[in-house]
Amino acid sequence: MSPEQKNNRAWLAVLPVVLIVAFSGVVPLMTVVNYSVQDILDVHTRFFVGFDWYRDALRDERLHGAFLRQLGFSATVLLIEVPLGILVARCIPRDKHSTPLLLVLFAIPLLVPLNVVGTIWQIFARGDIGLLGAAINGLGIEFNYTQVPLHAWITLVLMDVWHWTSLVVLLAFAGLSAIPPAYYQAAALDGASRWQMFRHVELPHLRSVLLIAVLLRLMDSLMIYTEPLVLTGGGPGNTTTFLSQYLATMAVGQFDLGPAAAFSVIYFLMILLLCWLFHTMVVSRDQ
Fold this sequence. Notes:
Blueprint: H1 3-35, E1 38-40, E2 46-48, H2 52-59, H3 61-91, H4 99-111, H5 114-124, H6 131-138, H7 149-177, H8 181-189, H9 194-222, H10 226-231, H11 243-253, H12 257-286
Antiparallel strand pairs: 1-2
C-alpha cells in the first residue's frame, strides 16, 4: 500500500469527527450570522437590516463596561492561577506513593458542575452562615459580597481560583514530570540554585504546557457565565455583569434576537482575536 493511500484512509477516519464539529459548531454559527443582519418580529416576519445591529452593539456603553470588566477579571485570575499552579505543581512529590492521591484531590474541583460551584461559594461567603464570611466578619471586617462591589469581586476571583487552579497544577505537573533527571543533575553539578533550576531548566520545558493552560483559562474566563450568575446575579448593580450575562439578558430576557446575534458574533470574534494575539506573541517570543 502506498503512503498516499494510507494518508487518504487516515482522512476517512477523521471525517466523522469533522462532520460532527461542522454540525455542532459551524451550522449554529451561520444561523447566528444570518440572524444578526435581520430584524426578526416573529417566526414569519423579518426584515434585512444589514450591519445596523453591529453598529448599535459597538456604540452600546453597557457593552463597553462589560468588556472592561471581562478583561479585568480574566487578567486577574490568570495572574493568580498560573503562578500558583506552577508553585503547587513544583511542591508535589514525584514517584511517591502519595502522588496519585494528591493528583486526584487536586482534580476534584474540576469535576464540580458550574452551577454547584456558584452555589457552594454563595453559601461559603455569606456573613451569617458561611465559613469565609463569618471568619472575615470575626476579624472586624464587615464582609458582604451582595452589597459591596469590591467584596463581590474578591469572592468571584477566589471562587475561580479555587475551581480552576487545579487545571494549571495538573498540566504543570505533567510538564515537570517529563523533564529528564539528567538536566537536574547537570544543574546541581554547576551549583545552580532552586531559582536558577526553575528559570533555566524547568521553565523552558513548561512553555508549551503553559501556553495550553493559559489559552484554556483565557478562553474559559472570557466566557464565564454560570458561576457569577448564581453567586452575585451580576450585582451589586452591574459591577459583576460580564459579556456573557449581558448577552443572555439581551437574547433571553429581552428577546432581541437580531441585536443579540450581532453581539454574539462580535463576542466570538473578540475571544478569537485575543487568543490569537496571545498565541502569536508567545510563539514569536520563543522563536
